[in-house]
Amino acid sequence: MSTYSLVKRGVISLTSADAGTSKDVDLSGAVKTGSAFITATVRSNRKPIKVQRGQIVVTEAATSPTTAAITAVAALAQAHVNAQIRETRAGDSRGATVKLSDVDELSLEWLGGALAAGEDIVAEYEVIEHHLTRQGATLHLLDEDTVRAEWDTELEAGETITISYEVYDLENLGDDLKEILFRLQKVLGIQGENSIQDLQTYDQAGNPTSFRVRVFDSEDSVDDATIDLPEGDALETGELSRYKVTLDWDGGRNRPKSIVSVRTHLLTPTPEVN
Q1: For 149-177, what is each residue's pLDDT tens digit?
Q2: Residue 109: beta bridge partners?
């Protein structure tokens, strides 16, 4: 019988250390891609929002607007800015705003022209980006030795994805079923189904001393077989195996002392199995 594991199981743990959006993992042994399939359970711990924080400081002689670079957001429509502003300014000019001027840039604007000596504006900001698309993950069989996990967008610090999987290869199971059928046909043939006994020999008392048992796969193969085919000839169509049976008789009691059956020919242990 075949030696294999019908199911290959594993767990893939993904973190921010897994750069990119895919990872290949080796199976514990090769499978046949044409007959294998995979099932997977995905547990995802992804942040629904992404927040980056910073500070913009403008002092004497700074003019409005002043820009500051940020880590690019996916789209302006998915992000907004919260800001707290502290001002040290003379006169009646007050007020400032912070907004996203581009996907990778903030703009600080104020009224009253350039800042004078001793004036400053400090803006503490948060850029909040919302994930509007599903943050999913998939697993598929890449080749006979490898599974590939793929996920949406790179993982950030603190985010994780855990994928438990099972890979089933049904061709190995099919091979075993073919071998079981072959062995069952042999057993039934030895019991007398679809079999021939020929090349009998006898002692002087007329007791059989040897004969050959030939096992076939069907009644049609038995009907087409050649009786008393020479012993060294090849197996005929549908013939699975041959056995030589030898009987040793006790002349005084006229009964066999021993009956020995030896297999002489066998089609193959695993017919039709690749």
Answers
A1: 999 888 988 899 999 999 998 877 777 78
A2: 97
> Domains (ranges, CATH) in the chain?
7-46+133-172 (2.60.40), 49-130 (2.60.40), 192-266 (no CATH)
The answer to whether the predicted template modeling score (pTM) of the entire model surpasses 0.85 is no
What's the 3-state SS for the chain? CCCCCCEEEEEEEECCCCCCCEEEEECCCCCCCCCEEEEEEEEEECCCEEEEEEEEEECCCCCCCEEEECCCCCCHHHEEEEEEEEEECCCCCCCEEEEEEECCEEEEEECCCCCCCCCEEEEEEEEEEECCCCCCEEEEEEECCEEEEEECCCCCCCCEEEEEEEEEEHHHHHHHHHHHHHHHHHHHHHCCCCEEEEEEEECCCCCEEEEEEEEECCHHHHHHCCCCCCCCCCCCCCEEEEEEEEEEEECCCCEEEEEEEEEEEECCCCCCCC
How far apart (Å, rounded) are the C-alpha atoms in residues 107 and 246?
A: 102
Query: Exposed/middle/buried for 73, CB within 10 Å: 0-12, 13-18, 19+?
Result: buried
